[in-house]
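dumping this here so i dont lose it
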C-alpha cells in the first residue's frame, strides 16, 4: 500500500492533572521535516517524538503541536519567589538605563513563564502520558495517509488504463497512417505530372516509414506503465521511484510527439502528455 504525505490527526486525553491534546498535520515534502511545538514543561519529549516520527514516516513536513490545559480547580496558586526576584532585579537593571521608566506591573511579572505555578504535578507521569498519546496520534495520522494513498493509487491506475488505451489505439492506427501518407505522396506526384523512378520512390517511402516508426516508443510506454503498476502494488516509500517513472513516461511521449506525421498521432501524443502530467501532480503527494 502506498501512503499520501497529506493528513491530519488529533487526539485528546483528560486526566486528574489536566487535559493533553496532540494535533498532527503533514504535507508533502522532499524529506522528513518535523516541526514541534511543545509547552516548556514537555521539552524533554522532543527527542522521543522526533525518533517516533523517524521510525513511523519516511517523508513529509509534519507539524506536531502539544497542548496541556492544567486542572486548576481547587488548587492554590503558588509563586516561584526566586524566579520572580530574578525577573524584578533584571527589570530594575534595565529601568536604570531609561530616563523615565514606566513602573513595573506586578501582573506582568506574574505572567512571565515559570513565575506563577500551580500545585506541582508529577512531570514524569505527564511526559509518559503525553508520549503515549502521541503514539495514538501518529497511528491516526498514518492511517489517514494510508486512506488517501489508496485513493491516489486508484486515480493513478485509472489514468494508466487511459494511457494503455491511447497506446493500443495508436498502434493500430500507425499502418493506416503510413499508407495514407504513401497515397498522399503519390497523389502529389500525379498532380505535378512528375515522372519518378518507382524504385527511388519506394526507397523514399521506406525511409519515411523508418523515421515515423514509433513502435519502440509505444513498447517503452507500455513497459513503464507495467512498472508503475508494480510499484503501486508493492507500496512502501514509493514516491521518488514513481516520480522518476513519470519523467521516463514524459520522455517517451515527447519523442512520440516529435515523430508525429499525422494529426491523429499528434493528438495521441498530446493526450498522453496530459495524462502523465495529471499523474505527476498526484505523485508529488506520495510518500
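and the seq i came up w/
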Amino acid at each position: 500500500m502506498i501512503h499520501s504525505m497529506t493528513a491530519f490527526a488529533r487526539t485528546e486525553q483528560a486526566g486528574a492533572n489536566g487535559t493533553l491534546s496532540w494535533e498532527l498535520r503533514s504535507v508533502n515534502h522532499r524529506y522528513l521535516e518535523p516541526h514541534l511545538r511543545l509547552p516548556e514543561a514537555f521539552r524533554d519529549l522532543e527527542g522521543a517524538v522526533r525518533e517516533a516520527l523517524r521510525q513511523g514516516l519516511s517523508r513529509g513536513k509534519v507539524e506536531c503541536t502539544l497542548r496541556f490545559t492544567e486542572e486548576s480547580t481547587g488548587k492554590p496558586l503558588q509563586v516561584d519567589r526566586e524566579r520572580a526576584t530574578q525577573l524584578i532585579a533584571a527589570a530594575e537593571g534595565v529601568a536604570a538605563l531609561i530616563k523615565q521608566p514606566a513602573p513595573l506591573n506586578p501582573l506582568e511579572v506574574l505572567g512571565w513563564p515559570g513565575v506563577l505555578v500551580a500545585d506541582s504535578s508529577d512531570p514524569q507521569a505527564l511526559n509518559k502520558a503525553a508520549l503515549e498519546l502521541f503514539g495514538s496520534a501518529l497511528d491516526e495520522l498514518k492511517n489517514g495517509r494510508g486512506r488517501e494513498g489508496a485513493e491516489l493509487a486508484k486515480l493513478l491506475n485509472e489514468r494508466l488504463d487511459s494511457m494503455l488505451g491511447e497506446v493500443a489505439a495508436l498502434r493500430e492506427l500507425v499502418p493506416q497512417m503510413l499508407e495514407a501518407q504513401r497515397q498522399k505522396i503519390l497523389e502529389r506526384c500525379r498532380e505535378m505530372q512528375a515522372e519518378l523512378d518507382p524504385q527511388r520512390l519506394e526507397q523514399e517511402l521506406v525511409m519515411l516509414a523508418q523515421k515515423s516508426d514509433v513502435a519502440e516508443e509505444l513498447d517503452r510506454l507500455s513497459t513503464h506503465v507495467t512498472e508503475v503498476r508494480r510499484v503501486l502494488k508493492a507500496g512502501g516509500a514509493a514516491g521518488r521511484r514513481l516520480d522518476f517513472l513519470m519523467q521516463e513516461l514524459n520522455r517517451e511521449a515527447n519523442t512520440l510527439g516529435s515523430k508525429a506525421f499525422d494529426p491523429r498521432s499528434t493528438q495521441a501524443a498530446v493526450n498522453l502528455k496530459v495524462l502523465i502530467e495529471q499523474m505527476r501532480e498526484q505523485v508529488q503527494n506520495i510518500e
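The CA atoms of residues 250 and 277 lie 8 Å apart.
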